[in-house]
Amino acid sequence: YLNFTDNGRNINKCIGVAPTHKECDKITNILREKLKEHNIIGETISKKKIFISHDWTNEKRTNLKSYQKGMTLHINIDHSNFEQNEIVTVDSIQNKRLITDDGRILSISKYKNYDVGKIKEIDLAVGDKIQFRKGDNKNNIINGEVTTIKDIDKKGNILTSDGKVIDTSFK
Questions:
Q1: What is d(CA 79, CA 93) in angstroms, rounded to the nearest whole number?
Q2: Exposed e or buried b for every residue in 73-86, given b needs 16+ CB within 10 A?
């Protein structure tokens, strides 16, 4: 990877692929250390919890048998008593509805604008390239956009090389 990308300076020239999330995480950790050695990224200055989609099909998402206690949902659009970009955890399944850990009810037969995944903590450093997998009007983020971290302020907001300020609530 480093040979094909000029030590990480031209990441569009190569893509790394791993068969499992565990192996992908291992490769990421090795590459991050190499990128630090070559001063492409700085030392970790922040950790951020992010939502990682399971990329379920609509068929799987609408099948209650797919769900278990502790699963994480990302709400894509305001609905009833749920806000856009809110992250909730499934506590139980009752009467063909998901009950969140704070007692709210989500009827998956009526509401389709959510995603199923998990929360993961990642390291962030100046120079990191990040890609957004969800758009967000509040932070002026376009789905699929790639940007570079310029700094992280004392409040934890991410400052990007293209002038965006991504607040701490963004997951």
A1: 19
A2: bbbbeebeebeebb
pTM score above 0.90: no
Give 124's pLDDT tier (boundaries 50, 70, 90). Answer: very high
> CB atoms < 10 A from the CB of 72, how many?
19
Per-residue pLDDT tens for 34-86? 999 999 999 988 888 888 899 999 899 989 999 999 999 999 888 888 988 88
β-partners of residue 149 are: 160
In the chain, the amino acid numbered 7 is: N
Provide the residue type at 171 as one letter. Answer: K
Q: What share of the chain is helix, strand, coil (3-state, %, to 5)?
A: 15, 35, 50
Q: How far apart are CA 110 and CA 94, in angstroms?
A: 15
Rounded to 10 degrees, the C-alpha dihedral 163/45/47/168 comes to -40
How far is Cα 32 from Cα 103, in angstroms, rounded to an integer?
40
* Region of residue 70 (left: phi > 0; alpha: psi -120 to 50; beta: else): left
Q: In whole angstroms, how far apart are CA 129 and each of 79, 92, 99, 100?
A: 32, 37, 36, 33
